[in-house]
Amino acid sequence: MTSLDYHDTLREVTTPGGVLRYHEAGDGPPLLLLHGSGPGVTGWRNFRGNLDVFAEDFRCLVLEFPGYGVSDDFGGHPVIDAQTALVQFTDALGLERAHIIGNSMGGGVGVNFAIHHPDRVGKLVTIGGIGTNLFSPGPSEGIRLLQEFTENPTRERLVDWLHSMVYDPALVTEELIEERWALATEPETLASARRLYGKAAFTAMMDMMRKADFPMPWAVMHKVAAPTLLTWGRDDRVSPLDMALIPMRTIPNAEFHVFPNCGHWVMIEAKAAFERTVLSFLSDS
């Protein structure tokens, strides 16, 4: 657990979409840390255990995306709002260029930002969550459990989903369950989650993407110019390992690191190895 304090690091900035909150620690080149989706998620909970290490070399900025109970809810689709928020956030802070670490959905947001704002991204690190299923069925086990919880939130369904996120079930502690449950069941946060993972909304999104005249996100990853490190848990049950194959092959300057005995939360479950790998990548000129 980080020795940095939640309240001491908490900041906020006003943007055209609403107030965005974030945590700031350390000095050096800017490093944006972008969280994933799911019940009770926040940027702080995703990355609090890594901040001490990364803050030794970087100005760490942990953005809280709209609709997850910390920043203002922009009111739209959570993924689209996250993409909008990242642009508004970097503009508001005057960040001309930054490295990015993105967990799951946050990795997809980072990829989108790197494609549309190539001059503003130094290096990009993703943690699972991008690409598309090639050999494994979709939606994955973790996504299906997430949908079940979103449709009808119960503690049992939350615990089932949390277990799908990790390789080691001991990581699903009572403390983790309680903190996730409290935020995930707040009315506004749950309403936002249903815009993304409610079964009807999810089906509509998939249908829209299949019928659209624009390419799927995984089909444009060749446009990522930033040096990219793809990190993955070998035992990820949310975004199975075969999803990494297209980004690994199509992102021009991509490296790929797989962590054994590790699920979806690589930065938590393979903490020390992840930090060593990322620091080596970011410091390599």
Task: Give a description of the structure.
This protein is of the alpha/beta class and 285 residues long. It has a single domain, classed as Alpha/Beta hydrolase fold, catalytic domain (Rossmann fold, 3-Layer(aba) Sandwich), CATH 3.40.50.1820. Helices cover 42% and strands 17% of the residues. It contains 13 helices and 8 strands. The chain has helices spanning 6-9, 43-47, 51-54, 78-92, 105-116, 141-151, 155-164, 174-184, 187-197, 199-211, 245-250, 266-269, 271-283, and strands at residues 10-15, 18-25, 30-34, 59-63, 98-103, 121-127, 228-233, 254-259. An 8-stranded mixed β-sheet has the order 1-2-4-3-5-6-7-8, with helices on both faces. It is globular and about 45 Å long.
Describe the protein's topology:
Elements: H1 6-9, E1 10-15, E2 18-25, E3 30-34, H2 43-47, H3 51-54, E4 59-63, H4 78-92, E5 98-103, H5 105-116, E6 121-127, H6 141-151, H7 155-164, H8 174-184, H9 187-197, H10 199-211, E7 228-233, H11 245-250, E8 254-259, H12 266-269, H13 271-283
Helix pairs in contact: 4-5, 6-7, 6-9, 9-10
Keywords: Hydrolase
Pfam family, one: Abhydrolase_1
Domain AB hydrolase-1: 29-270
CATH topology: Rossmann fold
CATH class: Alpha Beta
Helical content stands at: 40-55%
State Rg: 17 Å
| β-strand number | 8
Instruction: Give the amount of beta strand, in percent.
Output: 15-25%
What is the H/E string?
HEEEHHEHEHEHHHHHEHEHH
Give the name of the CATH architecture: 3-Layer(aba) Sandwich
The strands making up the biggest β-sheet line up spatially as 1-2-4-3-5-6-7-8
Number of helices: 13
- Separation of the first and last Cα atoms: 30 Å
Q: Give the integer mean of the pLDDT values.
A: 95
Structural class: alpha/beta
The residue ranges in which pLDDT falls below 50 over 5 or more consecutive positions are none
Instruction: State the oligomer.
Output: single chain
Protein name: Alpha/beta hydrolase fold protein
Domain AB hydrolase-1: 29-270
EC number: 3.7.1.8
GO molecular function, one term: hydrolase activity
